[in-house]
Amino acid sequence: xxxxxxxxxxxxxxxxxxxxxxxxxxxxxxxxxxxxxxxxxxxxxxxxxxxxxxxxxxxxxxxxxxxxxxxxxxxxxxxxxxxxxxxxxxxxxxxxxxxxxxxxxxxxxxxxxxxxxxxxxxxxxxxxxxxxxxxxxxxxxxxxxxxxxxxxxxxxxxxxxxxxx
Length: 165
Hints:
By secondary structure, the chain is mainly alpha-helical. The protein has one domain. It has a two-stranded parallel sheet. It is built from nine helices and two strands; from the N terminus they run αβαααβααααα. One of its GO terms (cellular component) is Golgi membrane. Keywords: Carbohydrate metabolism, Glycoprotein, Golgi apparatus, Membrane, Signal-anchor, Transferase, Transmembrane, Transmembrane helix. Its main location: Golgi.
């Protein structure tokens, strides 16, 4: 887009005409991840001060969508998939396959640019971790988390998510 803007400029700072021109001039790629897997990753990275996963989840639920960290906010509140027509949606867990396709479509040599990704191992590991972490939560926490991420679960195909149950 020809207009100068800094990295920190948010899309909301532009008028509708500028937004439309900007979005039309970019290839828009959205990377999405199961919200429960996002929570597990944040907990393991020490993003909360909680000693247990259950207390970390309670922290997230108590903070809500307005006061919570961007790291655990629902994706639909951050990337607005209903307002922006993304050209590609790349699912975590299928990165090797989807990034290869994306690079090919962009005319880039996919093989040399892709890191070594083992999607099946990632999926298996997160499945196992999800089972362990989900079992630590109370029935009320599970219900509240499903409600907290309900729009993400509706917008993206996270059919195997523990939060979809």
